[in-house]
């Protein structure tokens, strides 16, 4: 029975010789690739194109009607009530989000708290961030300041865009000016090296307020594309459903789609670990190991991230969703990624010191790699690819040696426990 389902042309044998040229190529091809139930080209049932198009058109119209009905019911009261938003940090992503929020409503005051007085002057006088986006004009309602008290005064929302490794010290320094009810929206991705803490733990600790409202914003998003108003989708995660919905209202626009989640751990840990995996992907590219290697490595890395994240309490659906797999794909495969760039240069033979000294932005994956391994030991999960990245960064392993070791791991052809070490 099974043999009869095979296309007839697959059963032909030519004893090592090339098959004779096919006649009536189109009809022969259709019969070859089709199943027995597929209509012959000249049969009445073959002309189903109009009906199929009608089905597709009706399905699409249903989706559009559903979308429009929900948009008509969408609340806008959060944006209407918001008068001031503060952005902590003047880097590329903080700037892009400041510009985006400022464009959401005329008259909305967006304050950027920056360290560099030259950048501050550039934003206020010329409406450009001269360091990161010299060619992009910022909305006139974006105001920069170096005064934390003035920036935070009467703010309705706070977007935290300071790199993870500097966040604790920075927040401790401004804690006196932070209202205990001010919602913090974290844009920072990574793990604190010595404490292994995520931003959801760093912010309330540094501010000495365990009840500080917190939201994690993550997903596949390059600052440059946000500045160019290109379609983007991200996730806001909070244990407070009402707060997540409010931030969704604040940020969502015609070119920025915002999904909500209650899985803060999953969103944060995926955002941190994907930076380490991106370094590995860059190394593969820098060594010119090919597409097969890249696919194998990223697949393995996705498995490792899922193993550790679920051990920490994350939902598997978060890891396979927008803030997990979506962010991994962007960071591992696109040249705009800082972490991937670090990997490419490591794979090409440059030293880490040479690479970091030439960069004007922070590649969070470099610091996060060591913290990830410490977390893996804490939760008893073995992570071959991410561990190899940490050892390369610590100059204890060369990229070439790492590839040989990973390819020499035991071959596996059975279902593996989540804590096993395996290179798929």
Automatic annotation (TrEMBL):
Annotated localization: Plastid, Chloroplast
Gene3D superfamilies: N-(1-d-carboxylethyl)-l-norvaline Dehydrogenase, domain 2, NAD(P)-binding Rossmann-like Domain
EC number assigned by the record: 1.1.1.8
Pathway: Lipid metabolism; Phospholipid metabolism; Membrane lipid metabolism; glycerophospholipid metabolism
Molecular functions per Gene Ontology: glycerol-3-phosphate dehydrogenase (NAD+) activity; NAD binding
UniProt entry keywords in alphabetical sequence: Chloroplast, Lipid biosynthesis, Lipid metabolism, NAD, Oxidoreductase, Phospholipid biosynthesis, Phospholipid metabolism, Plastid, Transit peptide
Coiled-coil segments on the chain, per record: none
Segments forming domain Glycerol-3-phosphate dehydrogenase NAD-dependent N-terminal: 84-243
Top EC group: oxidoreductase
GO cellular component: chloroplast; cytosol
Reaction(s) catalysed by this chain's protein: sn-glycerol 3-phosphate + NAD(+) = dihydroxyacetone phosphate + NADH + H(+)
Main localization category: plastid
GO biological process per UniProt: carbohydrate metabolic process; glycerol-3-phosphate catabolic process; phospholipid biosynthetic process
Record keyword Amino-acid biosynthesis present: no
Entries under NCBIfam families matching the protein: PRK00094.1-2, PRK00094.1-4
Similarity comment: Belongs to the NAD-dependent glycerol-3-phosphate dehydrogenase family.
HAMAP family listed in its UniProt record: NAD_Glyc3P_dehydrog (MF_00394)
PANTHER family to which the protein is assigned, alphabetical: GLYCEROL-3-PHOSPHATE DEHYDROGENASE, GLYCEROL-3-PHOSPHATE DEHYDROGENASE [NAD(+)] 2, CHLOROPLASTIC
Name of this protein: Glycerol-3-phosphate dehydrogenase [NAD(+)]
Source organism of the structure: Brassica oleracea (Wild cabbage)
